[in-house]
Amino acid sequence: MNDFRNSRGRESHLQGTDPSIKSVLSIALIGPDEDRRRAFMNVLSGRQSTEIQEFTSYPTNLDDVPQTIGNRFDVVIIDADSDPDFVFDLVARICSTSPACVMCYSGESDVKQAVRFMRAGAREYFALPLVPAEVAGALTRASIPQAASTVVQAPKTAGQVFVFLGTKGGCGVTTIAANFAISVFTETSQSTLLIDLGQPLGDAGLNLGMVANYSTANALRDYARLDGSFLNTLITKHETGLAVLAAPSEFPKDQPPLEAFDRLIAIARQSYHYVIIDAGSRVDLMDSSIFDESSTVYLITQVGISELRNANRFISQYFGLRGRSLQIVLNRYTSSMLLFDDAQITKALTRPAHWKVPDDYSTARRTLATASPIALEDSSIAVEIRMMARSACGLPDEKKSRKKSFSLFGK
Ligand SMILES: Nc1ncnc2c1ncn2[C@@H]1O[C@H](COP(=O)(O)OP(=O)(O)OP(=O)(O)O)[C@@H](O)[C@H]1O
Ligand SMILES: [Mg+2]
């Protein structure tokens, strides 16, 4: 019962009339639990124009997914309950390596779990008992070829880089960078990587409640052999599906050369549509390709004497010639009780700030305590960060846009 290669085939054929719709849909039904798999099979059994293979276990090795699933199936239906964490990785892997439409089913109707799997790439999520008409509708949608843009895959051109830099420690770089990354991923559904280069010990992963086995130290130490697959093995996936290359959890002994950072950014851009970098307040990386003209730099500052003084120096010394590729963010902004008015702030910054992230202590504190991302809520901080992300990715301004949820089900 635990051999993924053990499968039973069954075929039935009927020619469709619309040539853009597949005439025979090949389906993999993967479910270690006999009862739940049977329940799904019973609904599928009545359908014509399908070719079904049942699998009584999950694939044992995710690296084999391109061979075992690859282009063999139009639809892959997976029991989410037997090993949810593994299935989450399995869904993400299938969606990134195969054009198949992935659907999940579960004995529980757990909305959080459903959203989690949808964010990994599943197009449908069914709770048992099944409604045959819902399954039929989902299979009909799956039989219509998907637009290439909705398939998660490596970008055809180099990914866009967004660098977050603080004018002083504690300005809010990690808070804004991590939540911007989640917003970019959830708003665009395109592959997105957050790289934490914060020093001395970056905490983007910690803020997102993640435990990472590998870090930037592994990538930068072995940069000569860094390629897309090696980078992939160092990534930790956040529950939203965002890819994170965390900072090391121990103080690094050596400082890697700038070419190590250049290589990391080059490989990241080859592999992801969007690359977001938490650069802390690192001036030492200013000559690396992280700060190339092609990157957009978000300079995070607060409205304090030293922060504005530093912002002025950063802009005049490093970014004076940048146009839209420098975006200035005032964090913890309140319109009252400021030491400076808007005209004085603009003068110090040599230009108006592009974004104002409100001061919201209770949201920041609560989300830190629960390690749940601000971006997934509808607080004032989240709304502003989501606007920043949508603007960065060329999406229309949706000031009041709410989190995507069940609209993704296509129902
Ligand atoms: N808009 C905000 N409103 C309220 N609190 C905020 C806001 N932005 C950040 N904070 C809080 O400020 C503190 C510092 O934020 P954060 O760790 O993001 O800063 P940082 O610039 O990354 O710091 P470091 O220099 O240590 O890397 C955190 O406790 C965070 O919750
Ligand atoms: Mg930080």
Describe the structure.
By secondary structure, the chain is an alpha/beta fold. It folds into two domains: 7-150, Rossmann fold (3-Layer(aba) Sandwich), CATH 3.40.50; 160-400, 3-Layer(aba) Sandwich (Rossmann fold). The chain is 35% helix and 18% strand. The chain has helices at residues 34-45, 65-68, 84-97, 111-120, 132-143, 173-188, 204-207, 216-221, 228-234, 258-271, 305-319, 342-349, 361-370, 380-392; strands at residues 7-11, 25-30, 50-55, 75-79, 101-106, 124-127, 160-166, 192-196, 236-237, 243-245, 274-278, 296-301, 326-333, 355-358. The strands form two sheets. An eight-stranded mixed β-sheet has the order 9-10-8-11-7-12-13-14, sandwiched between helices. The protein has a six-stranded mixed β-sheet with strand order 1-3-2-4-5-6, with helices on both faces. α1 (34-45) links the parallel β2 and β3 (50-55). α6 packs across α14 (380-392). It is elongated and about 70 Å long. It starts with 6 loop residues before the first strand and ends in a 19-residue tail after the last helix. The protein binds adenosine-5'-triphosphate and magnesium ion (MG). Adenosine-5'-triphosphate (ATP) is lined by residues 166, 169-175, 198, 280, 331-332, 357, 359-361, 364, 368, 381.
